[in-house]
Design brief:
It contains 26 helices and 18 strands. With 604 residues, it is α+β, with helices and mostly antiparallel strands. The protein has a six-stranded antiparallel β-sheet with strand order 3-4-5-6-10-11. Strands 2-1-8-7-9 form a five-stranded antiparallel β-sheet. Helix 13 runs antiparallel to helix 14.
Length: 604
């Protein structure tokens, strides 16, 4: 297991010195690491390199799902690749031959750093399955797939980025380019960044979802002449292709099966398309709690998988929460982090090296998280009716409504943060900036004009890229397993935004087109069931096995010295007061997760 670092410095010697300071494996000799690139061994990841092709050197974490297409494109262009070319080198050759358009041809999970004509080019995959961070200090650019490596970089001397604390408490993840380390930024998905020696940065978008209803005919909500069944039929073909591309060759595959329609359809497609065993895994928090085990068991039996239910206790979560938090490059306020880590361990112990999941159905096809905003828009009473031509004040209200709809700590910040923290935040950028481009898109070809698509676009580019995919990637990578998400396939996403919104939210039926596309694969009780989600007993844990840990961490000396949170508010939340029941458990979970992450990265 390894991650990678890359540097752009004035001399190779300085580059090697900075790489070594970040923990990279630098050997003697200017050619041993290429011009400022090396691996960080012992950190969970899939990095390889450095490798050289077409006069360029690169290092990266690259898994491609459409190798034959890329090999064929290079051959047609007169620049054939070696038949045994590793994925990272193949992607480098596509970049060298076609530029950003060559990256757009790829389908996969990748973060790539390329030394190109005296610059350092950073490339992140279309949807953000793998992460890449960068910073500048001492006249040097440094980039890494490991945020911890940049934390170790003495030249940077980074500390806590307070604006990111507010963003995390608002979203339960970091929704954009900012990180909790001052001066460190994250490359956004679908982008190529060119870092020049003089400190300038040039950004190129090689892919962004666009609303192409009716092939740009502008026919509105009724967009296109095709009947609904054709959208479902085309989607079915894309789902089969996306799943098939992510299946491993000649070995078993695992699927994380919650019992919802998304994970169930991925299970059914894997069972249909794979000639080798399919292992499925579900979570139980105890028989006394509401769960979906009846549905997941039904799907496993229907698809004839090798099914396993993993029991997760509050004591196990308390014992391993710090470990799970430390594995993530940015904190995720999701109480499923420890269960997800335990699932990855179970998969690895059973042998599969690839695990599929059903993540992506909600942010791409219109799950229930959009309903509060849709109801708000209907009741807003300003006559806007969802138009993007709203007055600025109304649009600002829409953004605030979106942040409130997360039901995290956005409205609690005045009571949660100390007076000193609030004063320091007064002049810093607000978290609204991460959602404005989606909820108030600028006039451009292919922009999202329908409110539902604006919400889905926002969810895809924020929660999808900075929570769902990155959490899966880091926790599975820690066990040497690759987590893959067929519903985040680029072509599936493109088709979703070419589908009229009324076929995604059809009356009161969410994800209608997705359900219709797979109706023949699953029992009707699974396809037509209302979404309930996994009931995680956070409140129970915080009142039991996690109570002592939370008290020691949030009321202890180190937290008090950091000066972020009001002790009286934390005490009230721990006693179940001060916030609307039962939400204070989830809010307290955010604060606890953040504190654990800051300690793991030694950030003060």
């Amino acid at each position: 297991m390894a991650r990678f670092c890359a540097c752009l410095a004035a001399t190779p010697e300085r580059a090697r010195s900075h790489l070594a300071a970040m923990g990279a494996a630098v050997r003697d000799g200017s050619g041993a690491t290429g011009p400022g690139a090396a691996l960080i061994h012992g950190e969970p990841g899939h990095a390889t390199g450095p490798f050289t092709a077409c006069g360029r050197t690169a290092v990266g974490e690259v898994t491609l799902h459409n190798r034959p297409e890329l090999v064929a494109a290079l051959a047609r262009s007169g620049a054939p690749s070696p038949p045994d070319c590793p994925d990272g080198e193949l992607l480098l050759r596509c970049w060298a031959r076609f530029g950003a358009a060559g990256i757009g041809l790829a389908e996969g999970m990748f973060a790539l750093a390329v030394h190109d004509d005296g610059d350092l080019v950073l490339i992140r995959d279309h949807v953000g399955a793998r992460t890449l961070f960068y910073a500048r200090a001492d006249g040097t650019w440094a980039a890494s797939s490991s945020l911890r490596a940049l934390r170790r970089w003495p030249a940077l001397g980074t500390g806590l980025e307070l604006a990111a604390v507010r963003s995390f408490l608002t979203f339960a993840y970091l929704p954009g380019e900012e990180t909790l380390l001052r001066g460190v930024r994250e490359v956004l998905p679908g982008r190529c960044l060119r870092l020049a020696g003089d400190g300038t940065v040039t950004e190129e978008h090689y892919w962004e979802p666009e609303e192409r209803i009716g092939h740009g005919s502008g026919e509105g909500y009724e967009g296109g002449d095709a009947p609904a069944e054709e959208y479902a039929l085309r989607l079915r073909g894309l789902l089969e292709e996306a799943t098939a591309r992510r299946l491993p060759d000649a070995e078993a595959v695992a699927v994380l099966l919650s019992g919802g329609v998304d994970s169930s359809l991925v299970t059914a497609l894997a069972a249909k398309l794979h000639a080798h065993p399919v292992h499925t895994y579900s979570i139980s928090f105890g028989d006394e709690l509401p769960n979906e085990l009846g549905y997941s068991g039904l799907v496993a039996t229907h698809c004839r998988t090798r099914h396993r239910v993993l029991s997760v206790s509050g004591a196990a979560v308390a014992a391993r929460l710090a470990e799970a938090a430390a594995l993530l490059d940015s904190p995720v306020g999701d109480p499923l982090t420890v269960p997800n880590l335990m699932l990855a361990e179970a998969v690895a112990a059973d042998g599969p090296r690839v695990v599929l999941n059903g993540e992506g159905g909600d942010p791409v096809f219109g799950g229930p998280k959009n309903l509060p905003m849709l109801v708000y828009e209907m009741q807003r009473g300003d006559g806007a009716g969802g138009s993007t031509e709203d007055a600025v004040g109304a649009a600002d209200t829409r953004e605030n409504a979106y942040l409130r709809s997360y039901r995290k700590c956005f409205t609690d910040l005045p009571d949660l943060l100390t007076a000193d923290a609030l004063d320091a935040l007064a002049g810093l950028p607000h978290p609204e900036r991460f959602i404005t481009p989606y909820l108030r898109p600028e006039p451009r070809d292919g922009r999202m004009d329908h409110l539902l698509n604006q919400l889905l676009h926002c969810n895809l580019r924020t929660k999808g890229a900075h929570h769902i995919l990155t959490k899966v990637e880091r926790l599975t990578a820690s066990q040497g397993v690759q987590g893959r998400s067929p519903l985040f396939d680029r072509r599936v996403v493109d088709h979703a935004f070419a589908t009229p919104p009324r076929w995604k939210l059809n009356g009161d039926v969410e994800k209608w087109v997705l359900k219709e596309a797979v109706r023949d694969l699953l029992p009707a009780t699974v396809v037509d069931r209302p979404k309930s989600g996994m009931r995680v007993p956070v409140q129970q844990w915080l009142g039991g096995p996690l109570r002592e840990l939370a008290g020691d961490l949030l009321l202890g000396r180190e937290a008090r010295a950091r000066g972020l949170f009001r002790q009286d508010t934390v005490r009230a939340w721990m006693k179940g007061r001060g916030a609307l029941l039962p939400r204070q458990g989830g809010k307290l979970w955010l604060v606890l997760t953040l504190e654990l992450w800051l300690r793991a990265y030694d950030v003060t």
